[in-house]
Amino acid sequence: SYEVIQPPSVSVFPGQTASITCSGDNLGYKYVCWYQQRPGQSPVLVIYQDTKRPSGIPERFSGSNSGNTATLTISGTQAMDEADYYCQAWDERQEVFGGGTKLTVL
Amino acid sequence: QVQMVQSGAEVKKPGASVKVSCKATGYTLGNYGITWVRQAPGQGLEWMGWISDYDGKTKYPQKFQGRVTVTTDTSTYTAYMEVRSLRSDDTAVYYCARASGPNGNDYWGQGTLVTVSS
């Protein structure tokens, strides 16, 4: 079955740029979404169709997807961005989640 | 506004079944699906299945084929997920979400804790 891999943790200083990767075989040929999950809360969609932001999501969140890697980038990271982030690969047959990345804002 | 409201917490014994409900409000059915995702304590998200609210077509990952069934009652805008032959490692928070295909799962329920214990 298809798998996508994320680093378990990423750390960033406030105001700096955080990059979280998601790797999978030919991932660039699939659509990727990203979800933010704070402790005790339901996931929130922050990026869909690789690069698009839902309404209400700050512009500092952006995404890319090419080759075997998708990346979520958070520019000017804020303390409120500390959370778990999950990538999700989607095609017509299945949804697959990565294992999640804990983003720590130092 | 769009809301997905799930049923309350459940405690089940190993071998039993559980059926979680998810009532959708604030949008017109027929253009979306409902997806189900679970999260074991301290673990990540795991996709369990999907149902179209247009024609009732379903999809499941191989891991849950035959043990999980998702259904909808379009008259009440309510989706259901049944898990049979429960084991202790099925203890998790179960989420429903409105599924928009490549547009992502954009509205999530509050989650339903299912505890499997003898």
Overview of this structure, please?
The complex is a heterodimer of chains A (106) and B (118). Helices cover 0% and strands 46% of the residues of chain A. Chain A has 106 residues and is mainly β. In chain A, strands 1, 3, 4, 7, 8 and 9 form a six-stranded mixed sheet that branches. Chain A has a three-stranded antiparallel sheet with strand order 2-6-5, with no helix packed on it. In chain A, strand 3 and strand 4 form a beta hairpin. Chain A starts with 8 loop residues before the first strand and ends with a strand. The model of chain A has no long low-confidence stretch (mean pLDDT 96). By secondary structure, chain B is mainly β. Chain B is 0% helix and 52% strand. Chain B contains no helices and eleven strands. Chain B has strands spanning 3-6, 10-12, 18-25, 33-39, 45-52, 58-59, 68-73, 78-83, 92-99, 105-108, 112-116. In chain B, strands 2, 4, 5, 6, 9, 10 and 11 form a seven-stranded mixed sheet that branches. A four-stranded antiparallel sheet of chain B has the order 1-3-8-7, with no helix packed on it. In chain B, strand 9 and strand 10 form a beta hairpin. Chain B is globular, with a radius of gyration of 14 Å. Chain B starts with a strand and ends with a strand. The mean pLDDT of chain B is 95. Classes of the chains: A mainly beta (106), B mainly beta (118). The interface between A and B is medium-sized, with 26 and 24 residues.
In short:
Chain A has 106 residues and is mainly β. Chain A is built from no helices and 9 strands. Chain B contains no helices and 11 strands.
Please describe the topology of this protein.
The complex is a heterodimer of chains A (106) and B (118).
Chain A: E1 9-12, E2 18-23, E3 31-37, E4 44-47, E5 61-66, E6 69-74, E7 83-90, E8 95-97, E9 101-105
Parallel strand pairs in A: 1-9
Antiparallel strand pairs in A: 2-6, 3-4, 3-7, 5-6, 7-8, 7-9
Chain B: E1 3-6, E2 10-12, E3 18-25, E4 33-39, E5 45-52, E6 58-59, E7 68-73, E8 78-83, E9 92-99, E10 105-108, E11 112-116
Parallel strand pairs in B: 2-11
Antiparallel strand pairs in B: 1-3, 3-8, 4-5, 4-9, 5-6, 7-8, 9-10, 9-11
